[in-house]
């Protein structure tokens, strides 16, 4: 099972989301974790590198009405040998990409 940590800024961003937006993010993370295990991300997660931010990736999903949800993350040093470690950096809408 992959391990993770959340930067304080991510936690602050997460607290600003509505309960429904947080629920949709949790659903997306379940698919993300499955894909981490296989080593290949499904197209629907729209995982890609963030421009001008080396080592930072973004994950995109539908938040229902309004703009798409985005979370930025990076790979961290493994905590459990052989398992990926994810560092969650930001979560919200496209606006988070100004400081991923």
In short:
With 100 residues, this protein is of the alpha+beta class. The chain has helices at residues 8-16, 19-38, and strands spanning 3-6, 48-49, 57-61, 69-76, 85-92. It is 29% helix and 27% strand.
Structure report:
The chain is an alpha+beta fold and 100 residues long. The protein has a single domain (3-88), classed as YaeB-like fold (2-Layer Sandwich), CATH 3.30.2310. The chain contains two helices and five strands; from the N terminus they run E-H-H-E-E-E-E. It has helices at residues 8-16, 19-38; strands at 3-6, 48-49, 57-61, 69-76, 85-92. The protein has a five-stranded mixed β-sheet with strand order 1-5-4-3-2. The longest helix has 20 residues, at 19-38.
Would you identify the regions where 5 or more consecutive residues have pLDDT less than 50?
A: none
Helicity range of the residues? Answer: 25-40%
The CATH first-level class comes to Alpha Beta
Strand order of the largest sheet: 1-5-4-3-2
Q: Please provide the count of β strands.
A: 5
**Given the structure, what is the number of helices?**
2
Spatial extent as radius of gyration: 13 Å
The gross shape turns out to be globular
Named CATH architecture = 2-Layer Sandwich
N- to C-terminal separation? 25 Å
**Which structural category fits the helices and strands?**
alpha+beta
Q: What's the rounded overall pLDDT mean?
A: 91
The count of domains is 1
Percent strand equals: 25-35%
CATH topology: YaeB-like fold
The largest β sheet comes out as: 5 strands, mixed
Secondary-structure element sequence? EHHEEEE
């Amino acid at each position: 099972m992959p391990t993770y940590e959340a930067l304080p800024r991510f936690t602050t961003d997460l607290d600003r989301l509505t309960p429904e937006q947080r629920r949709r993010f949790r659903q997306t993370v379940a698919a993300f974790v499955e894909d981490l295990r296989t080593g290949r991300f499904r197209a629907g997660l729209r995982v890609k590198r963030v421009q001008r931010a080396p080592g930072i990736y973004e994950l995109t999903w539908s938040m229902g009405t309004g703009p798409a949800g985005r979370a930025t993350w990076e790979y961290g040093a493994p905590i459990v040998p052989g398992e990926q470690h994810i560092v969650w950096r930001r979560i919200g809408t496209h606006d988070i990409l100004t400081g991923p």
